[in-house]
Amino acid sequence: MPGLWELAYTTAGGVVGAVVTTYVAGHHERRQLRATVQQQLLRLAGVRDGLADVVRRPGRAGRSARYPGGRRPRVSDELGLSVLLADGGDAERAAREAVEGLVVAALSAGVPRRVLDFAGGGEERALQCEVIRIVDHRLGGVLGDPLTELTEMCDGYRQATAQLLLQALWHPWRSRWRRAARIRALRERAAALHRRQVAAVAVLARPEFLDRL
């Protein structure tokens, strides 16, 4: 590249050189932004892998009402539990901070909001599935085979949404033509996964099980 740089800076009074400099700087910035997105994904994975235990919240003895505005409650809220990391920290707070970091990094890198929504949803569902697994383990495995199926669905959905994000991040023009069809398929998978999660929580929320937590 030295020859190209020398040529650029000796033509048109350095205008071409300035354009090249801007392009290279922008390219470097985009690579940094993409690397930051991937770091945030790893941070989320670290929170999910670091889930260690659940404890009953004081004064909570049953399933909670839905969040205001019709938002879905988290598994921990449905069961009246706090989710802890190995160091005793609040796992869901750590996950929320990691998701916020992912949103900032991804939007800065130019990822479409719709793609980001699915990627964030995949990470959120994966976290909720891990909470379900921990609760089921505490109860001695009351869910049985449906837990294995739910876990596989969660893993598959999270990987698919993460792949959608990474393709939009690294190959935005190449991936955009198939994006609408992939999002439609992911929406169907999300609905099926949601039904499985609801069924699992309904079992775990039975009074005889809640009393054992």
Q: Describe it for me?
A:
The protein has 213 residues and is mainly alpha-helical. The chain has 8 helices and 2 strands. The protein has helices at 2-9, 15-49, 75-79, 91-108, 113-138, 145-170, 172-204, 207-210; strands spanning 51-56, 81-85. Strands 1-2 form a two-stranded antiparallel ribbon. The termini are far apart. 25% of the residues are buried. Mean pLDDT is 80; it is low at 1-27 and 61-71.
Rg is 22 Å
Per DSSP E runs of 2 or more residues, the count of β-strands stands at 2
Please bin the fraction of helical residues: over 70%
Largest sheet: 2 strands, antiparallel
Total DSSP helices: 8
Name the quaternary structure: single chain
Give the N-to-C terminal Cα separation.
65 Å
Strand content: 5-15%
Give the strand order of the largest sheet, numbering strands 1, 2, ... along the chain. 1-2
Q: What class do helices, strands and sheet pairing give?
A: mainly alpha
What is the residue-mean pLDDT, rounded to a whole number? 80
Give the overall shape, derived from the CA principal axes.
globular
Order of helices and strands: HHEHEHHHHH
Uncertain regions: pLDDT < 50 for 5+ in a row? 1-27, 61-71
